[in-house]
Design goal:
By secondary structure, the protein is α+β, with helices and mostly antiparallel strands. Helices cover 36% and strands 19% of the residues. Helix 1 packs across helix 3. The chain has a three-stranded antiparallel beta sheet. The N terminus is likely disordered. The protein contains six helices and eleven strands. The longest helix is centred in the first third of the chain and has 26 residues. The protein has two domains: 83 residues, Arc Repressor Mutant, subunit A; 81 residues, Alpha-Beta Barrel (ADP-ribosylation fold). A hairpin with a 5-residue loop joins strand 8 and strand 9. The protein is elongated, with a radius of gyration of 18 Å. GO terms for molecular function: NAD+ poly-ADP-ribosyltransferase activity; tRNA 2'-phosphotransferase activity.
Amino acid sequence: MGMDVTLVTDERRLVKVSKYLSKHLRHQPERIGITLDANGWVGVPELLAAAGAHGFPISEGELADAVAGNDKQRFVIEGDRIRANQGHTVEVDLGLPEVEPPAFLFHGTVAASVPGIQVDGLLKMRRQHVHLSPDRETATKVGARRGRPVVLSVDAGAMHEAGQIFFRSVNGVWLTDHVPPSFIRFPG
């Protein structure tokens, strides 16, 4: 029984570390005094020192576990640098090449958001891009984070033919600037 408690504690700690990384590598690097380069990178030593100086010490092992164990692969470490793979509200250039999307992509949301989406389409809101999933299962998980999920189908092939640009992040999330309602298939 003692073993299970340890695992739960470790898992909770990794979730806290992951949320801390998201907050500071995607949204508010200045809050802990770090600066992301133009492509969103920051040195691992700089990040760890800043986290410790701001009351949230992270060991190198915890950082590696949080990056490797994140089910959505939100972060990547290259050499002695780390960055978030997508989801930034601060301006960064992820340096992703344009990619032709599959015929359909998916977006998970909740019912309360559907009327606005029917009028305005999918907007990037505070993020740099609209996030689309490669399959219904992933979109369902995304939508479920905010309640009972509704999965929308996006006619990405037709959007691409109409000149819309798509990118795919390292962890397989599809990114684009806007999805007009005419390219969305709503349930029901």
